[in-house]
Amino acid sequence: MNFLNAQWKNLALFNYEVDREILEKYLPAGTEIDIWNGKCYVSLVGFLFKETKVLGLKVPFHVDFEEVNLRFYVKRSENDEWKRGVVFIKEIVPKKAITFIANTLYQEHYETQKMKHGIFENEKTNTFVYQWKNGKKWNTIQVETQKNPTAIKVDSEAEFITEHYFGYTKISDETTFEYEVTHPRWEQLEVLNHYVDIDFGKTYGDDFAFLQNLNPTSVFLAKGSKIGVKNKRKLQIRPVLEEMY
Questions:
Q1: Under 8 Å between Cβ of 86 and 169
Q2: Closest Cα to residue 23, out of 90, 95, 72?
Q3: What is the pLDDT of residues 77-131, one digit of tens each?
Q4: Is the pLDDT score of 239 beyond 70?
Q5: pTM for this model (two decimals)
Q6: Residues 150/133, Cβ–Cβ less than 8 Å
Q7: Residue 57's pLDDT is what?
Q8: What CA–CA distance (Å, rounded) separates 113 from 108?
Q9: Interatomic CA distance for residues 35 and 97, integer angstroms
């Protein structure tokens, strides 16, 4: 049985090219940073959880909610094949129980904040807004898109950003949690305009305060789908020096 079943809907992905050295201390053992066309990315992602079930059960008042996360991309070699995954710097949700479960069972980096979202449609475009309150400030990300979805092209930047099917969590210098996220290939809505108003330093710490002065390299809106989270396991990675003896 999947640990988690849900729908992820209307994923707004703001992607920033960064120096890979910034991410090294967050890198889980046994993984390496995944690069696309020579670029190292972090992504700010806002989306909706819908129809959420934990171990097959709906938790009252925790079925539909927003999430905003900051993540980067990694890969791990196993049996001569690459597993491509993501590492989360922080995941913000409006429900304390979600934060408790994720941080306790998965050793993730969830934080509870007041959140809200809006979806505004007119004849030609859709606008998606995600907001969270940090102190007295409402942080905002917003995208305006075309209405008709299109396929995400093979070998495209959008494919790289959306097609990672594992999550990795750094527990210690030698221990990593791995879990699998299953979903079909997504479609996207072409982004026409975007808006970002975030205090990156206060939200994500000094290591990521520099994003305040960067424009996103790209912005996508993925329609999303049903997802499942399963096969959580602990990886014990021996240090290289230990393997030599």
A1: no
A2: 72
A3: 999 999 999 999 999 999 888 888 888 877 889 999 999 999 999 999 999 999 9
A4: no
A5: 0.93
A6: no
A7: 64
A8: 16
A9: 34
Report the distance separating Cα 209 and Cα 200, nearest Å: 5
Query: 60 Cβ partners below 8 Å, 6+ apart?
Result: none
Which residues 6+ apart lie within 8 Å of 33 measured at CB? 20, 23, 24, 27, 40, 72, 73, 74
Neighbours of 162 (CB within 10 A): 21
CB-CB contact of 200 with 150 (8 Å): no
Closest Cα partner for 46 from 109, 119, 128?
128
Cα–Cα distance for residue pair 237/157, rounded to 1 Å = 31
Residue 84 C-alpha from the chain's centroid = 13
Give tens-digit pLDDT for 47-79.
999 998 876 667 666 789 999 999 999 999 999
CA dist 196 and 129 (Å) reads 10
Token pair in block for residue 49: 């959880």
Secondary structure, 3-state, 62-78: CCCEEEEEEEEEEEEEE
**DSSP 3-state percent helix, strand, coil across the chain (nearest 5):** 15, 55, 30
Which one, of 220, 177, 192, 165, lies nearest residue 16 by Cα?
Answer: 220
